[in-house]
């Protein structure tokens, strides 16, 4: 059973998706849920199916007090590194919230202060707190939809299915076709890039 955080009713939950991908943006969402918010599907949200996430997205958008979603593109990721890009995406998502911010809870163990708002990092927060679980659903569904659009442009990488993650199929396509402008150049695209050719 997911719980609310103990600090404040107006807590902001934030999370990102796509951190380990070889292609596409890193996407973050931030959300404030209303007092007494309940949803049985979100409650067991450790491993939601794509179908359940897609059903939850409009429900969360309609019921949230406010929410924001932000993408940070590969060129920026390559410039500032993936950790900084993930935190920047969360900050940009929080920027879109219209309510007074009292407290931020962040999935994971790294964050940078956002203005003067107190925050707490929570490992596996998406399996503990309702607002982080909600943010993780929004981040994932928005990013998946974005990758499905990029798939139309470069179908040979099958991003519609692998979403830019380093699957065997994705790596095979990189081997065959090289990389696109949507690939992160600072990431090791193929395992053999580690071996030195002497």
Automatic annotation (TrEMBL):
<dbReference type="Pfam" id="PF01351">
    <property type="entry name" value="RNase_HII"/>
</dbReference>
<dbReference type="InterPro" id="IPR024567">
    <property type="entry name" value="RNase_HII/HIII_dom"/>
</dbReference>
<dbReference type="GO" id="GO:0004523">
    <property type="term" value="F:RNA-DNA hybrid ribonuclease activity"/>
</dbReference>
<dbReference type="GO" id="GO:0030145">
    <property type="term" value="F:manganese ion binding"/>
</dbReference>
<dbReference type="GO" id="GO:0005737">
    <property type="term" value="C:cytoplasm"/>
</dbReference>
<keyword id="KW-0540">Nuclease</keyword>
<dbReference type="InterPro" id="IPR001352">
    <property type="entry name" value="RNase_HII/HIII"/>
</dbReference>
<keyword id="KW-0378">Hydrolase</keyword>
<keyword id="KW-0464">Manganese</keyword>
<dbReference type="GO" id="GO:0003723">
    <property type="term" value="F:RNA binding"/>
</dbReference>
<dbReference type="GO" id="GO:0043137">
    <property type="term" value="P:DNA replication, removal of RNA primer"/>
</dbReference>
<dbReference type="GO" id="GO:0032299">
    <property type="term" value="C:ribonuclease H2 complex"/>
</dbReference>
<keyword id="KW-0963">Cytoplasm</keyword>
<feature type="domain" description="RNase H type-2">
    <location>
        <begin position="9"/>
        <end position="198"/>
    </location>
</feature>
<comment type="similarity">
    <text>Belongs to the RNase HII family.</text>
</comment>
<keyword id="KW-0255">Endonuclease</keyword>
<keyword id="KW-0479">Metal-binding</keyword>
<dbReference type="InterPro" id="IPR036397">
    <property type="entry name" value="RNaseH_sf"/>
</dbReference>
<feature type="binding site">
    <location>
        <position position="16"/>
    </location>
    <ligand>
        <name>a divalent metal cation</name>
    </ligand>
</feature>
<dbReference type="InterPro" id="IPR022898">
    <property type="entry name" value="RNase_HII"/>
</dbReference>
<dbReference type="GO" id="GO:0006298">
    <property type="term" value="P:mismatch repair"/>
</dbReference>
<dbReference type="InterPro" id="IPR012337">
    <property type="entry name" value="RNaseH-like_sf"/>
</dbReference>
<comment type="function">
    <text>Endonuclease that specifically degrades the RNA of RNA-DNA hybrids.</text>
</comment>
<feature type="binding site">
    <location>
        <position position="15"/>
    </location>
    <ligand>
        <name>a divalent metal cation</name>
    </ligand>
</feature>
<feature type="binding site">
    <location>
        <position position="107"/>
    </location>
    <ligand>
        <name>a divalent metal cation</name>
    </ligand>
</feature>
<protein>
    <recommendedName>
        <fullName>Ribonuclease HII</fullName>
        <ecNumber>3.1.26.4</ecNumber>
    </recommendedName>
</protein>
């Amino acid at each position: 059973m997911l719980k609310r955080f103990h600090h404040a009713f107006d807590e902001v939950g934030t999370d990102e998706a796509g951190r380990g991908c070889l292609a596409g943006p890193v996407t973050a969402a931030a959300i404030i849920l209303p007092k007494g918010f309940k949803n049985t599907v979100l409650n067991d949200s450790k491993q939601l199916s794509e179908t359940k996430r897609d059903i939850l997205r409009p429900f969360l958008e309609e019921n949230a007090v406010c929410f924001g979603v932000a993408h940070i593109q590969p060129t920026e990721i390559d410039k500032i590194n993936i950790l900084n890009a993930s935190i920047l995406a969360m900050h940009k998502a929080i920027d879109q919230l219209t309510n007074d911010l009292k407290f931020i809870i962040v999935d994971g163990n790294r964050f940078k202060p956002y203005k003067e708002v107190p925050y707490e990092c929570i490992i596996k927060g998406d399996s503990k707190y309702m607002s982080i679980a909600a943010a993780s659903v929004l981040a994932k569904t928005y990013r998946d939809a974005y990758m499905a659009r990029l798939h139309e442009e470069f179908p040979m990488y099958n991003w519609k299915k692998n979403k830019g993650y380093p699957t065997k199929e994705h790596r095979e396509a990189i081997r065959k076709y090289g990389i696109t402008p949507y690939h992160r150049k600072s990431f090791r695209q193929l395992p053999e890039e580690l071996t030195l050719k002497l």
